Fold this sequence. Notes:
414 residues; mainly alpha; 2 domains
Amino acid sequence: MTYFREFRVNWTTLLGAMLGLALGSAMNHYMTNLFAPELIAEFGWDKAQFALVGTLGLASMFVVPFWGRFADRHGARLSAAIGFMAVPLSFLAFSLMRGNIYEFFAITVLQHLFGVLTTTLVFSRVIVQRFDLARGMALSVLMSGAPLVGAIVVPLVGEVIDAQGWRAGYRLLALISAIGGIVAVTLVGRRPRGTAAAPERTAQRLTRTQFGALLRHPAFILIVAGMFFCNVPTVIVSSQFKLVLIESGAPGKLATWLVSLYAVGVVVGRFLSGLALDKVSAQTVALAALGLPAIGFLILASPAEHPWLLAGAVLLIGLAQGAEGDIGAYLTSRTFDIANFSLIYSFLIASMGLAGAVGSVLLSMTLGATERFDMFLIISAALTIVGALCFFMTGRGGRLRVSEIVPEMTAPSL
């Protein structure tokens, strides 16, 4: 099958995966900001206490490997169906809240625990099974769905909140998620027209010995470590970027424009990395795409205040932010047996979550010590280079199968 024929044959699967990823728990990334002012105003919640909602996602770290194994054993379609039963119900539960902030926290935790089945953990698995020559670009298209759909849904939900209140907004989200889930589950399980039935490859039972050997294998350790180091700086771009740019000398309006430029860099970086992954070795792409942002962090940490230098720094950082998810999924699928993709990828997701928490603590400590972002930016540059090198070093081995790591199947199974 040729590069473009993979898209012609599997476009419905790709569309279903895009919609599933965009209309599941990922919507909260864009929606929480819309509801926060309304909830705080009506219930009188403390802003500092409400800010703790950002830490609740850590709860999913403990169940992500379990769900990853579940997806490998039972397939993406059943996994996504479970996720899309939970996410719309959680949005509906939000609409019924009576004012206790711990009720909001509890619903959020439950959404994180089950909503992970509507994330890349499941839908990346669909893509790597259906695409080979065009896998890099297909992963890029998949992960671009969430911001594109978010750009449409956010204004719509915002209008409903303004006109009918936050409860109606949550009910609309529940409806959108439920419809999106039905469409996504239907499309990802659909056999492409004109092709022979190709059942989804599911994992066989994995012995404890094999599982332990997998966790200790250098390629696995390097990919997980690379994802961790590259994501420690994300706290800057997720909540502090405009403040960093203003500290670097950008006037308020220029800083706002540069934040928009960052979003452009993310989209461009995602597609460039996807195309490059299909044409160049993944390790080379990782070293370039994930290493160059170190220059951007160092420019922001320097005394330089020229607008064009700041714009270049923002673009370099944005390019990496758009690339690291694609590279992690691609390397996982090319290095390990696809039958165990979701289990292995689950540790990458957990690593990203842990990196975000560590980055927040590290930023708080450096700001407390210096009252400036410079120290954290320098640390971010160093960690970014370390992460890029970790990904680059995965090329020292070939494709791995669990049975090749530990050929004997005598230990208790998982």
